Amino acid sequence: MHLSALGVLSPTLIGSAQAAAQAAPADLTPPPDLFDAQLLDLDFWVKPRTLTVTRPASGEKARLLYWKDGEMIDSAYQELCHLLRDVNGKQTAAIDPKLLEMLWSTQAFIARYGLEQPLEILSGYRTPASNARLIEAGVPAARKSLHMTGKAADIRIASLNEEVLGGLVRSFRTGGVGYYYRSGPKGGWIHADTGLNRTWKG
User: Residue 60: pLDDT above 50?
Assistant: First the structure.
């Protein structure tokens, strides 16, 4: 059931969602209460958590149940750390569990509306050397990037444009959200991290 049907949406949320709907691709308009993450019921947060991800840079795909009955499943967590590794620097690091929760909640939320698609991980952990190379190449990357501490990921979901995806991630209020708009068949991406709540456009 849509939360708007229960009469719990505020006018501000309705306005934001309608604006996002206009910005979304014409073939996939998001539901009117897409930015309603703060009104999720408790059952959403206590159910088992499965992440479906792809890494375009390496061609890897995985669907992993990583959290159940209030506990992280270590083997799945280790595999997710590997999937979010620095593909170029060929190094793995511990990924902040809060980041995994952010990724899962985003994916699980849109699945409630029948949008069951994998999260594309364009960048997860980065070594300091990899981060420096990006800066030297003119790629937008912060010198103290949270990617280097396993607290950030650049993500994309094929059916959601940057505005809609970024708005949803932002509604969970668990960290920073960067909007990277790009033209082309793949479009842009969203930077999500578990640092301070803030937004920017890159």
Answer: yes
Over residues 69-120, the pLDDT tens digits come to 999 999 999 999 999 999 988 899 999 999 999 999 999 999 988 889 999 9
- Could you give the 3-state DSSP secondary structure of residue 131? helix
Per residue in 147-177, pLDDT (tens digit) is 999 999 999 998 888 899 999 999 899 999 9
Distance CA 125, CA 148 (A): 6
How far apart CA 170 and CA 119 sit, in angstroms, is 16
**E-assigned strands of 39-132?**
49-55, 60-68, 71-72, 119-123
CA distance 98 to 106: 12
Q: What is the model's pTM? A: 0.80
Taking the chain, what is the end-to-end CA distance rounded to the nearest angstrom? 36
What strand order describes the sheet that includes 152-156? Answer: 71-72, 60-68, 49-55, 119-123, 152-156, 189-193, 176-180, 198-201
CA angle 102, 40, 107 (to 5 degrees): 35
